[in-house]
Description:
Elements: H1 9-22, E1 27-31, H2 40-46, E2 52-56, H3 68-71
Parallel strand pairs: 1-2
Amino acid sequence: VNTGPGKGKTTAAFGLALRMLGYGKRVGVVQFIKGKWHTGEKDAFAAFGDRVVWHAMGEGFTWETQDLKRDI
Length: 72
């Protein structure tokens, strides 16, 4: 799990995922915030077929929330 302020967490995680795919391993990706919207990253990893399992869990970023009380 990559956490923290600033940029680079997703890039670092995807770099490690690609490294493992290069070694012939299977990879699981869980995005906790991004929500169900379309991403280019998911499209790129789809090229690896069933070697990548992808889960997008959130409803989007908290600053776009419809219920701030619930999301805090």
